[in-house]
Amino acid sequence: MTGNKNPLQELAEYGQSVWYDNLNRELIRSGDLQRMVDNDNVTGGTSNPSIFEKAVGAGDTYDADIRRLVDEGRSMPEIYDALTITDIRLSCDTFGPVYERTQGRDGFASLEVSPEIAYDTTATAADARRLFTALARPNAMIKIPGTPQGLPAVERCLADGCNINITLLFGVENYADVAETYIRALETRLRRGQPVDRIASVASFFVSRVDTLVDKKLDEKIAAGGDATKLEALKGKAGVANARIAYAKYKEIFSGGRWAQLEAAGARVQRCLWASTSTKNPTYRDVIYVEELIGPQTINTMPQATLDAFRDHGRLRNSLEEDVDAAFAHVKALAAAGIELRAVTDELQTQGVDLFADSYHKANDTVRQKRDKILTEKGAGTAARGD
User: Fold this and answer.
1) Rounded to the nearest 5°, which phi and psi values hold at 38?
2) Rounded distance, CA 55 to CA 83, Å?
3) Is the pTM above the cut of 0.85?
């Protein structure tokens, strides 16, 4: 630790921002989010249907709002919308001073479009524009899955001036398409004579889930009689290797004449955001997906356990560009063992959309149960009064 700074604060000296991967109403009301901004240099945050479902079901924090919305005669989609939009708007307000201090480089809060429309370009674009308008904050970001159908929606929304967080990225090829989409959108704005200096976008690249699936496939090969020593040696390395290769691609894309023209007009790079950075395998170091991915112009979005662990014992070094050749070699070694990383990452994206859709349904069910309870109570009260 340098001086009085903790390791989370020191990440800024390496050009990396810390975002919090669990925005919710109680966090904001309690002042805990503000304390993270003040004490841990947390400069942004993300949410998703899974986070929202857990937050609503955890206690009574949302009950008063749900009751008010029921009294107003709101429908279920309207209630869900109102609750999630309020959470992210309040988060944007907490991060507002960061946004101003960094002149729009940082200080964002993200809200996700419905995962049910992840494969519908037109519906995704419309929903993203609607949410961005409803949030009415310059530091709001809308999360759109980086599916083949999602990317045209991303391009349209960025060109129209919406800040976009492209989420559920696993493959390097998919990431390259995402970065190209961002550049094309900015070029469209320049052709229209529109400003590009405050358009913000991040590419959310998921890390730990890559190791989880690759390790599972390696275990299957070992069980089938493969060389256990060689296959075991390949475990726990794919996630970091994949991210380092993606960062090398980022450096290649955001350089040269084409990008220089946009940069001269004030455009900012689309930063890589490392997501899914909690360690799923207890035999791996609990901060591995932070320590091994530290580098300039990047973001690490951490859940509470990872945030606490890194604050406590995180070790800092400019690690992201270490052993990039070894990262490429690891991907080749996996292919030689019969595991094609492209197939793994394609599978993970499909799986990711399905998981978020399941969480979206659970979140709606949780809200619906609370709404139905309120309606039942209202009915009983009406009956008791003889209304």
Assistant:
1) -75, -40
2) 11
3) yes
| Maximum Cα–Cα distance across the chain | 77
Catalytic residues: 143
CA 280 to the chain's CA centroid: 17
Q: Give every CB contact of residue 224 below 8 A, 6+ residues apart in sequence.
A: none
d(CA 281, CA 212): 8
Contacts of 211 by beta carbon, 8 Å cutoff, 6+ apart: 235, 236, 237, 238, 239, 280, 281, 284
Q: Which residues contact 169 (CB under 8 A, 6 or more apart)?
A: 146, 175, 178, 203, 204, 205, 206, 349
170-223: per-residue pLDDT in tens?
999 999 999 999 999 999 999 999 999 999 999 999 999 999 999 999 999 999
Which structure tokens are listed for 118?
A: 């992840």
Instruction: Pick the closest to residue 334 from 248, 257, 241 (CA basis).
Output: 241
Residue 42: enclosing H or E segment and its boundaries?
A: strand 42-45
